[in-house]
Design brief:
- By secondary structure, the chain is an alpha+beta fold.
- It folds into 2 domains: about 10-60 and about 110-195, no CATH class; about 75-105 and about 205-350, no CATH class.
- Helices cover about 45% and strands about 10% of the residues.
- The strands form 4 sheets. Strands 1, 2, 4 and 7 form a 4-stranded antiparallel beta sheet that branches. The chain has a 3-stranded mixed beta sheet with strand order 9-11-10, covered by helices on one side. A two-stranded antiparallel sheet has the order 3-8.
Amino acid sequence: MATFTGFILVGALVADAAKNLSREALSESTARQGYTAKAEIGKCEIVRPRHYSLVSWFDAPLPDYSFSIEPETKERKIDEVLRRLKSGVDNIQESQNFREFLLTMSKFHDYSIGNLMLIMLQKPDATRVAGFTTWKGLGRYVKKGEKGIAILAPCMPPKQTKVVEPEDEEDEGSLAEIRPIYFKVVHVFDISQTEGKELPEVEVPSLTGEADEGLFNSTLELAKLQGIDVSFESRPYQEPAIKGMYSGKTIWVRPEESRAQQLKTLLHEMAHYYSEGVFRMPRRNAETIAESVAFTVGAHFGFDSGIRSFPYVALWAQDKKVLEQNLSDIRKVSTKIIDALELKISRIGVAV
């Protein structure tokens, strides 16, 4: 899914560099009133050597889905909970609605860092972007008068070499043989600039109601023992969809949510701490692991967050193999948290 809300630019220097790479091309191709599909194709232009250092920003690498699975360990209660997790996620991923959702999402590109910068510079509130033709294929149409968001797409001219004079005066007189690099300007539109058929969505509901205060307080105590500062301060500027956040030794939980949602969020962010801060697990599937751990730990103590966790994990995993390949890490983190909570609960005599 291509989403840009909350994307942070890395300073004015980076923004200027992105604009510098595209300035020559953008000057010859701007969005027009009454946009047509034909205008989506821009002129293929060579990238000057002085801009070569920026080219890598427009070549997004594919995700790394190579994982290893640890050998099975002795069966315990956690294994039954993990089976419930996998079954719940599988049921969502096998539904017709989810297949339609994935089919739709596959039509959106994963944009390179350079193009993300260009999108944010031109339309900071963009959430999902695609070209004119892609939107048309999805049953949506660009509204009349909307201006396209200019990004750069690589051109694939015939393989050739070109001799150029170096720009560095110190190397004057020497020649360099290079393969020309070309880009063209194309235009994309945010979903807010279109109208028509609604896109399929997978609902991830918030949890409502009360939570076991014993488990809640024990989790807070565990965080404190780990040197983590848990904040419940109000952040009205933060997107409502973001229920919490983990960073270093700090966890933030949205105070306006129900107690049940707060507990699930606290477990989720603690899972981030253990997986990333303790076990140093790679971030490639951090959300899949964190939400799976939150469900597993909660279910172990009788707190069921499946109504939110199952669709959340389904969305982040998408491919069923992703969840399966991360089960050993989910088990490892869940066991660590469960053992720590059980020890703390037994010491203070709180039943959960």
